[in-house]
Amino acid sequence: MGTSSGDVGVQGVQMTGQTAQEVNKRAGGLPAFTSRLMLWSFGVGIIPSVVLVVALQLKSLLLLEYVHVISGGTWTGFDLFMSVILGRILASLDLPGRVEVAKRLTPTQFFVMPSLMSTTITAGIYLAESLGTFILTSPWIIAAGIVVIILTAQGFGIFIPNDMRIFIELAKPNPDRAKIARLNGINIRPMGVQGVMQLTIILIMAHIAVYPHRRPNT
């Protein structure tokens, strides 16, 4: 029997789609762009940590202050953007659209966010110690410590484990799209709390800077 031009066209479209899927996939089922986004995330994420190490080695209070402020500001801005803007965008997308966003968002932030978190907290502690304001009996330092504990618990207890779960699901031959979208949604929602906590700790830091309670000289 002959083959109609319509059948040939449909077969061509199917083959093209299959070819595109093969090109966009690597071993283990991960999209090809994942490695590129992970590499970009690592390259950007390592910068704050390197600057922090340089600041500590040089004993530069100015550079230490700079890396603390820029890392903390970027971390706060990212969380507010994710919760206030991206969260609304994701809510308007259908399931396939949310999954496609998660496929790209997860590797992009994989190294950047932990680096910003750890750099901001570490630089803040060293900065307070250098300025003589790291007094554990101070109610403002205690309040800052509580906020830091909440931020750290969310980051390393919710965000990073869920990112790993998303990667594991993406690596499967037939990933569960609903699970990926759900895990990504779990990551997005607490970022509003992170934003509020970070605005709170900025207020605490501003109070400590304006009304410093310094350690007495010994």
Q: How many distinct folded domains?
A: 1
How far the N terminus sits from the C terminus, by CA atoms, comes to: 99 Å
Q: How would you spell out the order of helices and strands? A: HHHHHHHH
Number of strands: 0
Summarize model confidence as the mean pLDDT. Answer: 81
Task: Explain what this protein looks like in three dimensions.
The protein has eight helices and no strands. Helix content is 81%, strand content 0%. It has one domain (29-209). With 218 residues, the protein is an all-alpha fold. It has helices at residues 5-23, 32-58, 61-92, 95-109, 112-131, 139-170, 177-188, 191-210. Helix 4 (95-109) crosses helix 7 and helix 6 (139-170) runs antiparallel to helix 8. It is elongated, with a radius of gyration of 23 Å.
Q: Which descriptors would you attach to this protein?
A:
mainly alpha; 218 residues
